[in-house]
Structures are given as structure tokens and as C-alpha cells.
Amino acid sequence: MKISSNVGKVRYTVLVCNEREGGYSGQCLELPGAISEGETIKELKENMVDAIQLVLESIESRASKAKRFTIDIPA
Predict the structure, then answer these.
(1) What's this model's pTM, rounded to 2 decimal places?
(2) Which residue among 12, 25, 30, 68 is least crowded, i.e. fewest CB within 10 A of its CB?
């Protein structure tokens, strides 16, 4: 029996659009800078993983060098 774990994983939502020229484009709703494309949904998913990781690395790099604070937004 295989037991899978989601520990260390984060889910992101990707908005998928059919492109007129063929294939698909996608944008991560939680990280709008993460955008990619692919000929198939499978290829788009793979490319979106790369795009999301690059955006997160960029944010982490900038955050480590910048002043920061947190804010609370009323629901």
C-alpha cells in the first residue's frame, strides 16, 4: 500500500485559457506574475510549476534584502 503525503506542498490555482493559435496559457491566481504556456494541459502544468517556483525564488530574494511588515485586512 502506498501512502502519499502533502507535507511540504502548497496548492496554487491556475487560470487556463485556450489560445487561438493552439495550446494553452495559464496564470497563477495567487501569484499573478507566474504566467506560462504549453501545447497541452500536461505541458502547461509542468511549465506553471517552473514559473511559480521562479516567482517564489524572486520574492524570497527580494524579501531577504528589504524592510518588511505585515498588515491585517478585515474580512
Answers:
(1) 0.77
(2) 68
